[in-house]
Amino acid sequence: MSNTTNLRSQLAYQVIQEVQKAVIGKEDRVRKVMMAILSGGHVLLEDIPGVGKTTMALAFSKALSLKEKRLTFTPDVLPADLTGFTMYRKETGEFYFHPGALMCNLFLGDEINRTSPKTQSALLEVMEEGQVSVDGSTYPVPKPFIVIATQNPSGSAGTQLLPESQLDRFCICLRLGYPDMEEEIAILKGRIAQSTIETVRPVLNVTQLLSLQKECQEIFVHDRIYSYIAALVQATRNHELIALGVSPRGTLALTKMAQAGAFLSGRSHVLPEDVQSVFADVCVHRLILNSKARISHVSPLSLLEEILKTTPAPSVRKKTSL
């Protein structure tokens, strides 16, 4: 990788360091969210309330200088609150478009699984095509456009499952988990002293982020890596305990995440480890297990780990080439 490109990957790492001022610990999760942003994907954070999901999203919006909007998905939220609506202006006798919450660079959807399916479906078009349709007219959202959504664990009060079509549009699904004792003490000290979000400074602007996203797309992927990715995905579709495997959209997300991982590591090409490190995060929310798996209390994560172990990875003779 050239010195110039290596410097740009270091710039992306500076974003991670800034976010970690607000999110104590969780370095691996913060890195993977950054990878998803570099790959142009959306992020689903699934965990119990109060572990820092919203704080992480706000920290990224500040470090990346993104126009951010936030909406809490209560049962009374309407699709028009997201997409916008047209209004009649009496003075001119014309209708005009009033933009909704989605007209931003980074949309933070809190507790996305607490609202109605009708409202959830308002995200389908914009997450895939970067546009919203209102009363027969189409309006593009700003670029880059990233959705970071949080959801409470299934079975929590007032929640309902997201449909498969919605889940498939998220590039990765992460759980933050509880902090350990040292991290929790650091959180207490930091929050008592000042608001940790206030310590995060902007590192990139929108133009720079778009440029980094383009560089990630140009990271070289060898044919053997493509075959490895395809073999992993096929294994999810042919497994005896999986009713619905990873979609082609998931295959593309896995490739882009691997490219972003290579970019952050300062490499111009993808290694098998780049694929392995994100395989579970990209695929875990895309699987539907069959009744036999549910009866046996088998988890999607354990099946993905099994697939990783049983699928041969391509050999790499040199660290600099495939």
UniProtKB/TrEMBL annotation:
Protein name (Swiss-Prot/TrEMBL): MoxR family ATPase
InterPro entries xref list: ATPase_AAA-3 (IPR011703), CbbQ/NirQ/NorQ/GpvN (IPR050764), ChlI/MoxR_AAA_lid (IPR041628), P-loop_NTPase (IPR027417)
All copies of domain ChlI/MoxR AAA lid, residue ranges: 234-301
Pfam families xrefs: AAA_3, AAA_lid_2
Domain ATPase AAA-3 per the UniProt entry, residue ranges: 42-171
UniProt-listed Gene3D superfamilies: Magnesium chelatase subunit I, C-Terminal domain, P-loop containing nucleotide triphosphate hydrolases
